[in-house]
Amino acid sequence: xxxxxxxxxxxxxxxxxxxxxxxxxxxxxxxxxxxxxxxxxxxxxxxxxxxxxxxxxxxxxxxxxxxxxxxxxxxxxxxxxxxxxxxxxxxxxxxxxxxxxxxxxxxxxxxxxxxxxxxxxxxxxxxxxxxxxxxxxxxxxxxxxxxxxxxxxxxxxxxxxxxxxxxxxxxxxxxxxxxxxxxxxxxxxxxxxxxxxxxxxxxxxxxxxxxxxxxxxxxxxxxxxxxxxxxxxxxxxxxxxxxxxxx
Length: 247
Known about the structure:
Blueprint: H1 2-17, H2 21-31, H3 36-57, H4 70-90, H5 93-120, H6 128-144, H7 149-160, H8 169-190, H9 197-217, H10 223-245
């Protein structure tokens, strides 16, 4: 339980400063013996309060873009998150277990090369409908798995709008919170997340602590150091899941 608590602290802090916290939380729960689908649903529920805490800290610093409006962007996140959560519960658990290593690998590539890909794939200025469609698709991924979804959102906004990446972090935190909130409500009522309450509470408490501290520390820690920390965790967890899958 102490390790799960510490994993929650690390996950909450990582999500506050740049994303990738689900790597740590999911891996800790699976290592504790929880089935991957249940662990993924539990991770979403447990990380929500930490993400919400970070959103509260950032509430006065949110900068978006004129079109689409923040409300429409959030609605796309909510709808996509609901569909993604439904897919996780409806599709066979074996398909998720087989997909996890590859989803982690994909998210790790985004973590490692997202900035370069964004610069290479500069998409100009698409209309609000195209931005909402992209946000909707990313939110489906977020509700289903969620690994590095915040970073994917930030990369997408940077490629399609004039939003500065450094100033987009508060908006990223809020949109990820919208996805997690929607998925978490579904998981609490439709999944067996509450069947292991001790693990859930331990991860949740740690995520709140990490989310609050991380949102404050992000202003003091060099961005390069944060990037290395998140990427190291992502590579390690991806390797562990591939070893587990092909063992």
